[in-house]
Amino acid sequence: EGPPEPRKCSHCLGDGTYRCPDCFGRPLFCTSCCREIHRTHPFHRVEQWMGTHFQESSLRL
């Protein structure tokens, strides 16, 4: 499943490279917003868009 086009961060409208299946609505995030938002949600699983698919990623982006 691919992200919507254009891929926009749900917070700053930057490049939405990451998504979080554990967040309501599975929003897309840029790197900075993903780090900031998940600072208080360390157990959420983050996925990164790899060009053709999402792959599990680390918050140590």
From TrEMBL:
<protein>
    <recommendedName>
        <fullName>CxC2-like cysteine cluster KDZ transposase-associated domain-containing protein</fullName>
    </recommendedName>
</protein>
